[in-house]
Write a structure and sequence with these properties.
Number of helices: 11
Strand content: under 5%
Shape: elongated
Helix content: 55-70%
Largest sheet: none
Radius of gyration: 32 Å
Order of helices and strands: HHHHHHHHHHH
Structural class: mainly alpha
């Protein structure tokens, strides 16, 4: 019994030590969150990753509008220090262009979070119109490869969703086919008929591109492997051809 009490007290003294907050274990936020640029990494994707990490490292209350403790509260100093770390997360995971827009002196993490949100949510109509024009006019000929073309379409669709103009998977597939050149009419018609999921349609186009590339390589190899005609033999053939054309018989 006495041993149990001593053991409990010892455990209590160890657990009584203040534990280091999980936020201090993050040395580089970019190891957890991709850099927000609004193009390759969209705002909605960045928010999902950021809030996931904020929850995991127990700092969600610094970006969800939870009021901070009063400045007379003993925990206020610690709150300010943790908030500064979260603010560094925000500033350190956005592009320079965005940083210039939201950077302010003496800002809390929530204030910076709100400024960034407002930047992407303001002027939705104008941004949606510009993105819609780019989306409907994108074609394979304007991109470096099939992969690049499909990814740009996907990125534009995500950006349109961010400004309240959602693009359905079906429309994304139809637009992808619409931007293909005439040489893809056969596979394009097949995709239009099936209307598969975007990733499935994307794989179908990639397979078609690989098939064309392989056929082109085979044709080139066959041409290189064909025996060359010697100049003297070619001259004889040319003379024989002229003779046949003139007299109609050899």
């Amino acid at each position: 019994m006495v041993g149990e009490v001593v053991q409990t007290e010892a455990s209590g003294s160890q657990s009584g030590k203040p534990e280091l907050h999980p936020v201090y274990s993050v040395n580089n936020i970019l190891h957890k969150i991709r850099m927000l640029d609004g193009v390759k990494i969209t705002y909605s994707s960045w928010v999902k990753l950021f809030t996931l990490n904020a929850k995991g490292y127990k700092v969600s209350n610094h970006i969800d509008g939870t009021p901070p403790p009063a400045d007379t509260d003993p925990k206020y100093a610690e709150w300010c220090e943790i908030d500064a770390h979260v603010l560094q997360w925000i500033y350190g995971s956005i592009s320079e262009d965005l940083l210039i827009r939201i950077l302010e002196t003496d800002s809390t993490a929530y204030e910076a979070w709100t400024r960034l949100k407002n930047h992407f949510h303001n002027n939705k109509e104008a941004r949606a119109a510009a993105l819609e024009h780019e989306f409907t006019n994108l074609s394979l000929s304007k991109c470096g490869s099939m992969d690049d073309y499909c990814q740009k379409l996907k990125d534009l669709a995500t950006q349109l969703t961010d400004v309240g103009s959602s693009v359905t998977d079906q429309r994304l597939v139809l637009q992808m086919v619409r931007g293909l050149p005439a040489s893809y009419d056969t596979v394009g018609a097949y995709i239009n008929q099936l209307l598969p999921a975007f990733e499935t349609a994307r794989s179908m186009l990639q397979l078609e591109e690989h098939r064309r590339s392989a056929r082109s390589e085979d044709t080139t190899a066959a041409a290189l492997a064909a025996p060359a005609v010697a100049p003297t033999q070619q001259l004889r053939l040319d003379r024989r051809f002229k003779w046949v054309r003139k007299f109609g018989t050899e």
